[in-house]
Design goal:
By secondary structure, this protein is α/β, with parallel strands linked by helices. It has a domain of 165 residues: Rossmann fold. The protein is globular, with a radius of gyration of 19 Å.
């Protein structure tokens, strides 16, 4: 039996090596596209008036024509992120980062697929944070079949709760295409403050930034003692940077 040690936290009991081998043979082998295809963005459930069919500027599209025209379905802008899972994984495992035996914080973890791929390399723990509840729920479900200790929290990075949710230290912090969203939602000053706080808890940072958006992030991380160890440019043009504390 798994032992639950907090909301979204699951810790496995001690097992023999034989038990671990037996258990690992039953772990689900997820295909990234299967995970992506199975998740549908839920409608908004927050407070406030619902727009009527007459007043809404967003028109509902019948699923029938979408199914009849596969190209139309895939081109319909229903995704809440750009690129594919392969785009998100590009460079992560060729950047000379040793994830084995490390504690990981994944900021803006989305549905946990990147974290799941990292879990195969043997980290001691993975902690994911994302603002969208459906994404966090999906990440928790994915990790039900994973032996790595994990926790996933639905949280706005601007929340006062952040200090109580984060651990004092992590070996590696993942900041994959998230800082420009922080700047947009929190404002430049608050985003710098939050980034500095998170970086202060890390020894290594793995960051992905859109083209032309890396200078501000590098400046903030340099101020808290980080320097670039390696740099990779993805086919879509984003930069994957590995930064280590001096």
């Amino acid at each position: 039996m798994c032992r639950f040690v907090g909301p979204g936290v699951r810790q496995l009991p001690e097992t023999s090596s034989q038990d671990a081998v037996i258990r690992s043979s039953f772990l689900p082998r997820l295909r990234l596209q299967d995970v992506l295809d199975s998740v549908v963005c839920a409608p908004a459930t927050g407070p406030g008036p619902r727009p009527s069919a007459q007043s809404s500027s967003v028109k509902e599209t019948s699923p029938a024509p979408l199914l009849e025209n596969n190209d139309l379905w895939w081109s319909n802008k229903q995704k809440r992120f750009k690129g594919t899972w392969d785009d998100r994984l590009d460079g992560l495992f060729s950047a000379e980062v040793d994830y084995a035996g490390k504690s990981i914080l994944d900021v803006g973890c989305n549905m946990g697929v990147v974290a799941y791929e990292i879990s195969k390399l043997g980290p001691t723990s993975i902690h994911g944070i994302d603002i969208l509840k459906p994404h966090i729920e999906t990440a928790r479900m994915i990790f039900l079949g994973c032996p790595v200790q994990s926790r996933f929290d639905c949280l706005d990075l601007g929340s006062r709760k952040l200090q109580n949710v984060l651990q004092p230290q992590y070996d590696i912090v993942m900041l994959l295409a998230v800082y420009h969203h922080m700047q947009w939602s929190l404002g430049a000053d608050k985003a710098r403050s939050v980034l500095s706080d998170i970086a202060g808890r890390a020894q290594t940072i793995v960051a992905r930034v859109p083209p032309g958006k890396d200078k501000e992030m590098i400046a903030v991380l340099s101020d808290v003692g980080f320097s670039i160890k390696s740099n990779h440019t993805s086919p879509l043009g984003s930069h994957l940077m590995v930064l280590a504390k001096h």
